[in-house]
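Narrative of accomplishments. A recurring question from our advisory board has been how the design workflow behaves on a single, concrete structure rather than in aggregate. To address it, we present the structure tokens for one chain from the evaluation set, followed by the sequence designed for it. No filtering or post-editing was applied between the two.
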């Protein structure tokens, strides 16, 4: 279903589930089941970027 203006949306995308911090507050408890390849991730990012009108931010850790 395509979005029609004036809808705003937020995407939180965990590119990897790999983490070595073991934070007590973390909600990620399941083991890694499989992750996207770089080719798949770039294809999704390209598709999502077509939906963005204003701006995007990218954050990371480690």
């Amino acid at each position: 279903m395509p979005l029609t203006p004036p809808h705003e949306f937020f995407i939180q995308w965990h590119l990897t589930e790999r983490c070595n911090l073991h934070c007590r507050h973390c909600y990620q408890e399941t083991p890694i089941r499989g992750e996207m390849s770089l080719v798949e991730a770039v294809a999704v990012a390209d598709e999502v970027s077509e939906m963005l009108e204003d701006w995007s931010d990218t954050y990371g850790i480690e």
